[in-house]
Amino acid sequence: MIASGDHDAFSNLYDRYFKRVYHFVNRRLNNTADVEETVQEVFINVFSSIDSYRREAPFGAWIFGVTRRTIASRFKKKRHPTVPLGDGDSDKIFSDQGASPVAPSAIETIEFKERVRTIKRLMNNLLTPEQRVLFDMHHVQDRPIQEIAQTLNRSENAIKSNLYRARKILLAY
Q: Which option is the CATH number for 105-171: 3.40.50.720, 3.30.365.10, 1.10.10.10, 1.20.1250.20?
């Protein structure tokens, strides 16, 4: 039994689910280093919380629930630097200490560009055309909800609801 510390049982579980978990995480993170680290975290979480499995659902479903929660917790923990948009000073990142700009490192620049590509890919693959337009208008063009509603001849509540669903979809990945 895995719960009693049987290493062979855990090794069998790892061998059985590794590829599926790896592909699941890879589709969401699309960064090899993050994927590998997250997959290891998933199996650590599976091992440490095996006692919480209640046999109400298939074991594989429980593992993918742990996987989804592990991915979500990585996004909550990771604090990315903010990058100013549209003021002509886009090659600087503001530090947490205040408004003193510091030049981003090469790795920060690469990570930022990768995150932008990932968000664009997710938007194109997961959001409806209307959600993409709304997301762009509100989060990229920084237009207020009221203005978007007037432009598209929709209610503010409809715009808010659609934006909420779009953000929820993107945050799940």
A: 1.10.10.10
